[in-house]
Amino acid sequence: MSIEERLLRLEGFAADVREHTRILTELIRRHDQRHDGHDELLRDIETKLAALTDAQIQTESSLQELAAAQAHTDERLDALIDIVRGLGNAGAS
Fold this sequence. Notes:
Number of strands: 0
Low-confidence stretches: none
């Protein structure tokens, strides 16, 4: 193989390396863009999850308050029923 043939072969190889480098650079750029998009989505999900967690805590607290109010209402209703029964028994005597 002559020097000229080797030089042509090396030039072809260098052109291939440049093309492969260009392709790899483009693939890395696209990957970085997708990765950045995923980071944004992850931050959005974390924010929404925190809000959902806060809402769940608030709901549990509200349910506890509602249960206490319901127990108080049940006690008052039982007392009213006792009064009405007492009035009914007094009228029957």
